[in-house]
Amino acid sequence: MSVPSRRRRWFTVCALTASAALVAIPPSAASGRSTSPFGVRVLGQQAKEREQSVGAMSPHLSGDDDGNEADEIAEGADQYAEARTSPGVVAPGAYGAAWHDLTHLRSTGGSWRNITDLPYNSDDPRYRDIDSNSSGGSGYVTGRMAAIAADDDGYVYAGSAGGGVWRSRSGGGHWRPISDRLPAQSTGALALDGAGRLWLGTGEATTNSDAYLGSGVYVLTHPHHGTFSTRSRVGGDELESTTIHQLRFGGGTVWAATSEGVWSHSTKRLSGPWKLEFAPNPGFMPGGSQADEPDAPYKNIANDIAIDPKDPSRVVLAVGWRSGDDYNGFYTKVGGTWTRITSGLGDLPADAGDVGSVTFARSADGSRYYAIDESPSQLKTNPDSGLEGIFVSKSGSPTGPWTKIADYKGLAADNSALTTPGYMPGVQAWYNQFLAVDPSDPQHVYAGLEEVYETKDGGSSWSTVGPYWNFTFPCWNIDPAKQTGDCNPTTHSDQHGVAIGRYHGKGFVFVGNDGGIYKRPVNGSQDASGHATDWTSLNDGTIDTLQYYSVGIGKDLDHGGVSVTGGLQDNGQSILRSNDKVMGSNFGGDGGDTLTDPDNGCNIAQEYVYLAVQVTQNCAVNDGGWTTDASKATSYSVAPADNATSEARFIAPLAADMKDGNTWVAGGRHIWVQTHGYAIRSGKEWTSVHDLGAGRSATAVAASGGKIYAAWCGPCNNQGFARGIAVGNADGTGWHDVSLPVDGTVPNRYLSGFAVDPKNADHVFLAVNGFSRHWTEGPGAGVGHVFESTDGGTTWKDISADLPDVPTDSALVTADGGLAVATDLGVVYRAPGRSTWQRVGSLPAVAVLQLRTSPDGGTLYAATHGRGIYTVKVCDLR
After folding, report:
1. DSSP secondary structure letter of residue 332
2. Angstrom distance (rounded) from CA 516 to CA 162
3. CA atoms within a 13 Å half-sphere pointing along the CA-CB vector of 322
């Protein structure tokens, strides 16, 4: 979950924060230590920032997205998309071709071992320091769950944002992956049809910080036993390199709402191409006359399809970009032509400015249709919420008339945790939506936004059965003897998927969110506040879809072995000590880069977003005593000044000097250096050693022996995209821009990482993101993904050779001179003295964002963005 540029720690797609009124921090708090409850996660601060940001969002890829994009998820979306597309757009087939080439590379020896396939407790009582979200009430978590399906035989299917589809045969838990053979592990939609087949639409469509494109739609005929394969793809490649929001069925047809319009296909004959039913702006489609325009990806977005159960030929399409466009609206066929509905909808808006992201749900008996609508105009102008409302069509027809049955103010009044102006229910309605109707009761509905809501009377009254967190409620306290004080456990925040199924004859509702998957009885119990008393986390450790940005390794001085930490999308930072059976969370929010002292794994620096850096020297072990005595806090806020001025990237680069672990480098608009290592206590201890220039921000930094390499972009989107490299010294001397002419020497794309030869600081490798000219349109797209310099960055040589055309995210030089590179589809390796590449192991098609080695250099760690952390022995890479 992401609170608007909100500094919420646990968010970005998570949540857990305490209001400033919860606990008072004495004015004697040490310098540099956060002096608000839960540090950067205070809702009041988040709300203020969002209110100030209305109408002043940062530019989006399209260049004309004037919605409120200050919130963390939206800004992260920009950065993630920019890294993979700027200065153009990705053509269909890019990921599929890259996956084919990667799987045909010769493999190294060795095999990957998952070390995070165990429970991850977001409420671990060991870590209740000032910047932790422990005690919020979400319990065991895993990575974002985008879609869910369930049947009446106890089978549950969970589709993750980046780690594929998982199956449980026991009503949740004891999970097994079932889509590892597919070239895309990003889920957009899951649905069971009337014949019991499981349909998978790949490509997550939440338009958030790290949504990946997909490779089409697949069907599993016997989902109780089988697994998806490439042979089970429906149709041809029409839906490749799209995202799929929903799959709906009616009259022997399956409908797909995608990022490139609405498509249909027969459910009986699965071969043959998909039919394009409707694209509001066909000229912007691939192959169209305007396909190369910067805003082309936002011109044909479809969100959902509603099919009249009494007449499957009557179909309503919900179409539109979340931040608004002239084509936004509801469409139906009139005289054989798709036509915008301009009247007769009742309370459901017809105006383009009030129709954004939409979700439909109908009752099993066909008597009612429900809808959630996010409003682009609200997103732009209302600091409290972007929600237009929740609606019902009591006629059962998707054409209405519709009646509004909930708005954000009413939901906030129903014992929501989101009652602070500037951050109220539906503030992320463009990102968080689900709807499900109880099959046995058309008036019993579950709705998901940031929280989970339930009505049993068709919307006349609502209960917040899954509040955002428990911090704001009187029942909460930080007591380590309790998970969440005297409150009942809740779900993780930011809701995306829902399904209702049965196990051993009992009905359950399953919800998917930024923290994984949870369940409760369909007709469960509530306390006096309307909060559910019976949520169960199904994130039992057998399902690992954790989305890491980074990984850090240091010696575990207390237990032997090593301690492993990692920054996560909306699940803070995980910490795995050598004797742990359960991982803990010692920092909240979005975890970006991680620095861990190789000689002491409890010396940790963790980056939130925009260079908001926290440091601890005791693993952030704390019993919460800081709430009454500020001196007991052992985590410190040490952000460089670019954090306060918003001149750093959402996930900004942070690195330690390879030769001096006490010298750190951080990149925003400026290159910052501090030399106190983990003893730093204040952001004032950073020194700006170089100004990259107005409008520029660092994308990667590396340092060895005082020599610093810094890559930047600015502008960073399609509108005049530019990139460059600056080189200089930690003492501020010798800084200069490297000449990078747009001639293919180093392509005009996002520069994502450096790897410095530990034996020679002038010998450096550069990882370049995005696709080559073949897959990325636009001037100066260039070719190549890995480059080498032997003269300190003055000149570069393309060493990509037979490397597949896939975005590369980071690189690492091994102790013997080998080169390991992390890509969007796994890890590749170039052995010492070789010029060709090998595939390392057989990971699924998951993005690997960072590589690190153990303190002794013998083990390679890979931080994947969807399948946890993996290791392989370096000596086996032969």
Report:
1. E
2. 12
3. 27
> 466-478: buried (b, 16+ CB within 10 Å) or exposed (e) per residue?
bbbbbbbbeebbb
3-state secondary structure of 320: coil
Greatest Cα pair distance, the chain, in angstroms, is: 75
Tokens (6 digits) for 52? 């100030």
> How far, in Å, CA of 651 to CA of 409, rounded?
33
User: Which tokens hold the place of 303?
Assistant: 């969100």
Dihedral sign, Cα of residue 489, residue 492, residue 493, residue 497? negative
User: What's the number of CA atoms in the CB half-sphere (13 Å) around residue 758?
Assistant: 15
CB atoms within 10 A of CB 721: 23
Q: What is the DSSP letter of 29?
A: P
- Measure the CA–CA gap between 438 and 367, rounded to whole angstroms: 12
pLDDT at 778: 58
Helix (H) or strand (E) holding 97: helix 94-103
Tokens of residue 134, six digits: 């422990």
Number of Cβ within a 10 Å radius of residue 334: 10
The predicted-structure confidence for 179-223, as pLDDT tens digits, reads as follows: 999 999 999 999 999 999 999 999 998 876 577 889 999 999 999
How big is the chain, counted in residues? 878
- The sign of the dihedral angle between the CA atoms of 583, 589, 592, 594 is negative
Q: Can you give the C-alpha Rg of the chain in angstroms?
A: 25
- Give pLDDT tens digits for 355-407: 999 999 999 999 999 999 999 999 999 999 999 999 999 999 999 999 999 99
- The alpha carbon torsion through 29, 34, 39, 42 (nearest 10 deg) reads 80
User: How far is Cα 661 from Cα 679, in angstroms, rounded to an integer?
Assistant: 11
Whole-number pLDDT of residue 779: 57
Residues 780/87, Cβ–Cβ less than 8 Å: yes
Tokens of 338: 């798709």
Tell how strand 402-406 and strand 387-393 pair up. Answer: antiparallel
667 - beta bridge partners?
A: 671
712 neighbors 688 (Cβ within 8 angstroms): no
Residue 101 burial (CB count, 10 A): 16
**Among 803, 835, 798, residue whose Cα is nearest residue 821:** 803
Q: To which residue do tokens 């994502």 refer?
A: 752
CB atoms within 10 A of CB 118: 17
Query: What's the rounded Cα separation, in Å, for the pair 764 and 760?
Result: 8
How do 120-121 and 583-587 pair as beta strands?
parallel
Dihedral over alpha carbons 400, 406, 409, 413 (to 10 degrees): 170
Q: What is the CB neighbour count within 10 angstroms for residue 272?
A: 11
* Residue 195 exposed, middle or buried by CB count within 10 Å (0-12, 13-18, 19+): exposed
Backbone angles phi, psi at 257, to 5 degrees: -90, 115
User: Would you tell me how many other CB atoms lie within 10 Å of the CB of residue 773?
Assistant: 17
Contact 740, 725 (CB under 8 A): yes
**300: helix, strand or coil:** coil
Q: What pLDDT, in 10s, does the model give residues 576-633?
A: 999 999 999 999 988 999 999 999 999 999 999 899 999 999 999 999 999 999 999 9
CA 143/CA 867 separation, integer angstroms: 8
Edge-to-edge strand list for the sheet holding 176-177: 145-150, 156-160, 165-168, 176-177
Annotate 243-282 with three-state secondary structure: CEEEEEEECCEEEEEECCEEEEEECCCCCCCCEEEECCCH
Tell me if 843 sits within 8 A of 114, measured CB to CB.
Answer: no
DSSP label at 568? B
Contact 602, 618 (CB under 8 A): yes
Distance CA 644, CA 611 (A): 9
- Contact present, 855 and 861 (Cβ < 8 Å): no
Spell out the residues 6+ positions from residue 36 whose beta carbon is closer than 8 angstroms to its own.
20, 25, 42, 45
CA nearest to 163, candidates 149, 151, 175: 175
pTM exceeding 0.90? yes
At 305, the amino acid letter reads I
